[in-house]
Amino acid sequence: MNTTNALKLFNxxxxxxxxxxxxxxxxxxxxxxxxxxxxxxxxxxxxxxxxITSTVAIQCIHCDHRILEKTRIKTxxxxxxx
Length: 82
What we know:
Elements lengths: L2 H7 L29 E4 L6 E4 L16 E2 L12
Antiparallel strand pairs: 1-2, 1-3
């Protein structure tokens, strides 16, 4: 099928061009309650800490990097195994 037949099929006069746009990170504008506690995550890209709650997007607030690591607690937890 050549280009002119395809254009007639979809009632087009010319081939559409695709403009490349930069994607913006998704931002949720949900209200955060004062009782909601976030979990501390560390961003390996910029090295800063970020608190993540259940209503915000999972990304660094400083550099918009989307891969975060949980920070380790300073005191080790010991469990008694049977």
